[in-house]
Design brief:
- This protein has 15 helices and twelve strands.
- By secondary structure, it is α+β, with helices and mostly antiparallel strands.
- The strands form three sheets. The chain has a five-stranded antiparallel sheet with strand order 2-1-5-4-3, with helices on both faces. It has a five-stranded antiparallel sheet with strand order 7-6-12-11-10. Strands 8-9 form a two-stranded antiparallel sheet.
- Strand 10 and strand 11 form a beta hairpin.
- It is elongated, with a radius of gyration of 31 Å.
- The two termini are 57 Å apart.
Length: 379
């Protein structure tokens, strides 16, 4: 094997490290230097219930059909599970050749695709999962020899690093998606600000507030307020939170009047815990939480029913009480008798484990509400 071919293979492996869609090309490069007609990499949980796989040299649908049929019972994996990184095994070391060619899995998949010799490389292992690369050859070629195994072992450290980078990137994407989903689920507006005080991200409530232009606007320089005095206070507070001009970063809060006459917005700016040496342009460095009293705190009656096993009438009463209504006012507005309302209130107290109406209201106010008032069902 030429060293330039090996170097090209390493380039393909590290390209796959940061771009998982390049794993097919990496497998193809390995197949060239090790003279294989089929290769696959698979990550699977040790209970074999979940897996992620990429293959080269076989139709994708055929490979997926093979995995659906065999990934839980494949004797090549269940007989000798992956236990450590760096292990290289011929199929013949896992299952005697004569037994392999008589097996159902050979007749179902390996023989129809001319995969007669195999080599398994263990490239990653943890307490819950493992990843391997399988290399396959046709019967017209010899089985993998010691030279092939030595070459495979040279590849393993690079495959291990590529797999580690893949996992870290997937985890980062997952955490980022979860964080943004959590922000979007909040009822009140939240803005992520970059090191220049510009909005790097706004949750759904924040987008709605900025779209209204009622007290808070976006300009080229960042956030702005209609009047000069509050605008200066806002910019100073944001500057301190993001550490603009070399200032020490610190939290701040202020009230902001709304031109429409609605209730004042309450703005709370908080620096995000991040090492300034690692900051990059556009990276969020501060969080601006906005309390909008006009949004209220009404919970979905469906959510209350799911949490406490309330009837529809009891859930509506809880929601009305949380809006500040009294039993007399609720009875008058709904056309029910005061005795009926009080009966529902007594059941509410019993089902929520509270003794008095103020205790009930405090409990309900402490519960999270969906951002759009949609129902939450039992899981």
């Amino acid at each position: 094997m030429r060293e330039e071919d090996f170097a090209a293979t390493l380039d393909a492996i590290y390209a796959a490290a940061v771009s998982p869609d390049q794993w097919t090309a990496a497998l193809a490069a390995m197949g060239t230097v090790l003279h294989c007609n089929g290769l696959a990499t698979i990550s699977r949980a040790h209970n074999r219930l979940h897996y992620r796989a990429v293959a080269h040299g076989v139709d994708r649908e055929a490979h997926q059909a093979f995995l659906r049929r065999w990934h839980r019972t494949n004797p090549l994996g269940t007989r000798v599970p992956i236990k450590c990184v760096g292990e290289v095994l011929r199929f013949s070391q896992i299952m005697p050749k004569a037994e392999f060619v008589r097996s159902e899995i050979f007749a179902d998949y390996f023989n129809p695709h001319a995969f007669h010799h195999g080599l398994r490389l263990s490239i990653w292992h943890s307490a819950s999962a493992a990843q391997s690369v399988t290399m396959l050859r046709p019967g017209s070629r010899d089985d993998f020899d010691d030279g092939d195994i030595a070459l495979a072992r040279r590849l393993i450290p690079h495959l291990h690093r590529a797999a580690a980078v893949n996992r870290h990137l997937r985890l980062a994407d997952l955490m980022s998606s979860a964080a943004f989903a959590a922000l979007d689920g909040l009822r009140h507006p939240v803005l992520l600000l970059d090191e220049c005080g510009r909005v790097a991200h706004a949750n759904s409530a924040g987008e709605r507030l900025l779209g209204q232009g009622d007290g808070l606007d976006i300009t080229e320089g960042g956030l702005s307020a209609p009047q000069q005095a509050p605008r200066a206070r806002l910019q100073a507070m944001v500057g301190r939170a993001v550490g603009g001009g070399g200032l020490q970063r610190q939290a701040g809060l202020m009230r902001l009047a709304r031109p429409t006459g609605g209730p004042d917005l309450i703005l709370i700016a908080m620096p995000l815990n991040a090492d300034r040496d690692w900051d990059v342009p556009g990276r969020p460095t501060a969080l601006l939480c906005i309390v909008d009293p006009s949004l209220g705190a009404r919970l979905s009656p469906d959510m209350l029913s799911a949490l406490f096993g309330l009837t529809a009438a009891e859930a509506m009463l809880a929601s009305d009480l949380l809006d500040g209504g009294t039993p007399i006012e609720i009875a008058r507005r709904t056309g029910r008798s005061l005795a009926t309302v009080r009966t529902h209130l007594a059941r509410l107290l019993a089902k929520t484990g509270t003794r008095r109406q103020p205790d009930l209201t405090r409990l309900l106010a402490a519960l999270p509400a969906t951002s759009d008032g949609t129902a939450i069902t039992d899981l």
